[in-house]
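User: Show me a protein chain along with its predicted structure.
Assistant: Here is one chain, sequence first, then structure tokens.
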Amino acid sequence: MLKQEGDNYYITDKQNFQSIDVVTEKLKKKVLDFAYDMTFGRTGEHRAYRSGGQKIRRNGEQFINTYQGKLAECGVFLYLWNNGIRNIEKPDFETWELGRWDTVDILCNGKKLNIKSTKHYGNLLLLETKDWNNKGEYIPNIKKGDNIYDLFLLTRIRPDGESEMKRMKLLYVDILTNEQENQLKKRMMELAWEFDIAGVITNEMLIEHINNNRILPQNALLNGKIRMDAENYYLQAGKMLRVDELIGLL
């Protein structure tokens, strides 16, 4: 469990970042185009808030979250492919309008994988409590029939994209000038993006954590400084299954 001191919660079981691979130039460009189209480009659209959340995310925030999330999916795909898995669907780069989403991040050997991304120093897999019931079902997908994920993977991305966006003063903007667009795309391509897979859990492990009320409350301070926008179920990276166990689970 997280260590609690009043409204402050502290991580106790960490997993060091261990880079698996560096993203190629071709893949960086593909992910960049997707993230831009889904945010600043207005080809597709993401929700501006988290389930149960209070904060409305600006386009800059949504862009880097989308970029990081798609890099994480691609990283998992590459890891599985390089370890001999061939019955696997490629990450989806289709842009969706608001209210539509792909129901599975990666389908591999008939199993549904849910890929969660975070910064390279992150050590929590977070799932908004409003999205999950005590049977481990993803509530928004119940009517679609894709409400059970077999495995959840916590994938971390380095460097810290949000810090880069802040440095460029683009994190909290909604519209880019031509100069800002060129600056953003140039910097995203310059950076040497890499990833690791911090840990894996099964649906059964998720259900156990839900029923044990492993909850990080809304407005709690994580590690004494990060205020939680929404209430989340949590799993610490140090308590998850290691990445070298993943292939055996598939």
